[in-house]
């Protein structure tokens, strides 16, 4: 099997690009060859069985099936899922840790690190995705993309963007949950790009709330991990091998309070970026965390001390 889907390269001045590359990827502990092959076999088994079980499962239960499959896929990839819900105080109790109720539209926005982001978000609650157009041709993920009705976007064709935004708005009007990655490209997880405002227009046009999600990967010591980063000259095969061989990774999903769309997509993008990056001091009580910006690249300042104690979020799910 050949994995030959490298990240797209910029072809016009407005196309998002990332300076992240192989130098950003720091190795972590790895499992042996036998465990790696067993994980790969597990992923292949899930991909082959998913279409059959989806057809055989009543529509009312398919969302539950998809969530179970996504969590099983994370397990096969050697990742544990941790969901932290900051939308509720401890007094309110733990939520169901989903993005929204069935039939209630919501636009989910998150930073983009790699292809595993799609699996991680689906493990919280199944959603539709806006994804690069060539993803439907990828091995393994391509079949899943077609089954889950991915909205394809050809980032090199700027004129197609309004049509994609309208497709997202149409899905939201139908009561669907749609996830987008407004950075427009992948970053390593320690640096990040600005959230582009275009996709937020779909939420404004339909009056749909936006769910900011802070997504990150940690190694077994709790340190931010760049192994899942799909950056630079990576092919899907390169990235998949790193992930399958990794040991003790945790994918952490932090659900921040929803943002109402308002009327200005740029202002909405700024609010969501503050939530996604954890840089909104008034909401999260962050006092000591600062960010360094160099051009379009921002990284957390390592010279700053630890955060002051803040209210404890509800740990809704831990696997």
Offer a few descriptive terms.
319 residues, alpha/beta, eight-stranded mixed beta sheet, three-stranded antiparallel beta sheet, 9 helices, 33% helix, 17% strand
Low-confidence stretches: 1-10, 91-95, 280-319
Which value, in Å, is the CA radius of gyration?
A: 19 Å
Helix content: 25-40%
Q: Sheet bearing the most strands, described? A: 8 strands, mixed
Roughly what fraction of the amino acids lie in strands?
15-25%
Q: Helical element count?
A: 9
Number of beta-strand segments: 11
- Spatial ordering of strands, largest sheet: 4-3-5-2-7-8-1-11
Category by helix and strand content? alpha/beta
Shape: globular
In whole angstroms, the N-to-C terminal distance is 31 Å
Q: Mean pLDDT, as a whole number? A: 79
How do the helices and strands follow one another from N- to C-terminus? Answer: HHEEHEHEHEEHEHEHHEEE
Can you lay out the helices and strands and say which pair or pack?
Layout: H1 33-56, H2 59-76, E1 79-85, E2 106-110, H3 116-124, E3 128-132, H4 141-147, E4 151-153, H5 161-173, E5 177-180, E6 191-192, H6 200-206, E7 210-218, H7 236-245, E8 249-255, H8 265-277, H9 281-284, E9 291-294, E10 297-300, E11 314-318
Parallel strand pairs: 1-8, 2-5, 2-7, 3-4, 3-5
Antiparallel strand pairs: 1-11, 6-10, 7-8, 9-10
Helix pairs in contact: 1-2, 2-3, 5-6
